[in-house]
Design a protein that fits this description.
By secondary structure, this protein is α+β, with helices and mostly antiparallel strands. The protein is built from 7 helices and 23 strands. The strands form 4 sheets. Strands 1, 2, 3, 8, 9, 16, 17, 22 and 23 form a 9-stranded antiparallel sheet that branches. Strands 4, 5, 6, 7, 12, 18, 19, 20 and 21 form a 9-stranded antiparallel sheet that branches. A hairpin with a 6-residue loop joins strand 8 and strand 9. The chain is elongated.
Length: 450
């Protein structure tokens, strides 16, 4: 019978079938959830300014920003990362690679690269059902100060260029309410002084899903990225870079999905009969997102309680203050997050030669040293304790030998002092490295979690 029939008892056949209605409800739930998973990020760099705390309200943040342009903006899915800012790269003549044959030799120029500028690497994860956002970041600020020319005074080698780069690097993490601001401030570093301000805004979870409830657990699955600790002295050039180590979290979305599946199979946790349970939808998961049927109220409550507890632990945030003489760095530090404060000046030094010899030819091979002067501090917060390691290096080139004195070519002799230490910081300021002569102490303070 057609849909135009006047028989009332047949009109139900023309109505939307249950499977189609269920599919439309599912699509509507997924669309609403997809929109809520978006996080808007805004970042600003305010030079020569200082923030009073690692968290600022909207009025204080905007007053501090004034007319400063944005460092960058982005819109990302919860759990995703983004790179903001600008990094500039300049090439320079760093060294020479030598080739020696039986009756000939040659020195091939070796080009290095010096990086400068301000970059901010961020990862944003929604927490508290979208009422808050956890932000983890790495701020890298570098400025080229000068480039010296070093003449080996060897007929086989040309002039070497030796740029000096001042840099500050701060790795941080913390939770803020949606629309709130995190602040990382650097003071006492001259031209690198200023404040990084990050605002993160998102939407709360859909209020009344029809079929599927989503649990945003991206923070539980987000790896902690730890860049290798730079050494005060290494062989090589300034352009060497390493990939970060990725520490995977202990609790993954698949684990929660397996737990939810177990809850759905327990008859006492649902009003559905065992017959109808065989056709009940199963939990669905993807990285950082778990979907449960709304009808399974008990399972949803159990998973929500577990996820809330795990997320709250990971998102607990302290304020970290690092002092080294006039230098003061302030920023947020969350539970289990990797933290770093690096303040160094960097250059390369022609510190030695290797001799390449053939039957009727020879040539000196320059040996470079990458030298950092300053300090590095990094660690992780666990249960309100900052477990840190640090080093400090001072000094530089103590003496330059001429070619006549060194025979193969002029070279630079290093005169350096280094110190290393580890510490557990709880609450009050703690000296990680003590003062040494003209060098001030390196101290850290960790505020109570909020």
């Amino acid at each position: 019978m057609s849909c135009g029939s006047s028989a009332r008892r047949h009109r139900s056949w023309c109505a939307e079938t249950p499977p189609r209605s269920s599919a439309r409800a599912t699509v509507a739930d997924l669309q609403a959830l997809s929109q809520s998973l978006e996080v808007e990020l805004r970042a600003y760099w305010v030079p020569k300014a200082a923030a009073p705390a690692a968290w600022l309200d909207d009025g204080a943040a905007r007053a501090l920003i004034g007319a400063q342009p944005e460092l960058g903006t982005a819109r990302v899915r919860s759990g995703a990362s983004v790179d903001l800012g600008v990094r500039r790269t300049r090439s320079f003549l760093a060294s020479f690679d030598v080739e020696v044959a039986s009756d000939a030799n040659a020195a091939e120029p070796r080009i290095g690269r010096v990086h400068s500028g301000r970059t901010l690497h961020l990862r944003a994860c929604r927490v508290d059902g979208g009422r808050s956002v956890h932000v983890a970041g790495l701020f890298d600020h570098a400025q080229e100060r000068e480039t010296q020319r070093f003449e080996p005074k060897s007929s086989d080698l040309g002039v070497l260029q030796q740029p000096t780069v001042d840099s500050v690097q701060v790795a941080f993490s913390g939770k803020i309410p949606s629309g709130g601001w995190l602040a990382v401030s650097v003071a006492g570093r001259g031209a690198l002084d200023g404040v990084v301000l990050v605002q993160a805004t998102t939407q709360p979870d859909p209020a009344a899903p029809a079929r599927w409830r989503g649990f945003d657990v991206a923070l539980l699955e987000s790896p902690v990225s730890e860049w290798p600790m730079p050494e005060p002295e290494t062989d090589g050039l300034l352009d060497e870079e390493s990939e970060p180590l990725q520490h995977q979290p202990a609790l993954a979305t698949s684990t929660l999905a397996q737990g939810a599946e177990g809850l759905l199979r327990v008859g006492k946790r649902s009003k559905l009969s065992s017959l109808s349970r065989s056709s009940s939808p199963s939990p669905t998961w993807m990285p950082g997102l778990l979907l449960l049927p709304v009808a399974e109220a008990d399972a949803c409550a159990e998973v929500e309680q577990l996820a809330r507890a795990a997320l709250a632990e990971r998102a607990r945030t302290h304020e970290l203050v690092v002092r080294h003489g006039e230098l003061v760095v302030r920023g947020p530090a969350s539970q289990g997050g990797w933290l770093r404060v690096l303040a160094v000046s960097e250059r390369s030094v022609l510190a030695d030669y290797a001799l390449e010899i053939a039957q009727e030819a020879w040539i000196p091979q320059p040996q470079l040293r990458r030298v950092l002067t300053g300090f590095a501090l990094e660690g992780v917060v666990h249960d309100g304790v900052f477990v840190a390691r640090a080093w400090r290096a001072s000094g530089g080139v103590g003496e330059t030998l001429s070619r006549a004195e060194a025979n193969l070519g002029a070279l630079e002799l290093l005169d350096r002092a280094q110190a290393r230490a580890t510490a557990r910081v709880v609450g009050e300021p703690r000296e990680v490295l003590s003062a040494d002569g003209a060098l001030p102490a390196l101290s850290v303070q960790l505020s109570p979690a909020r």
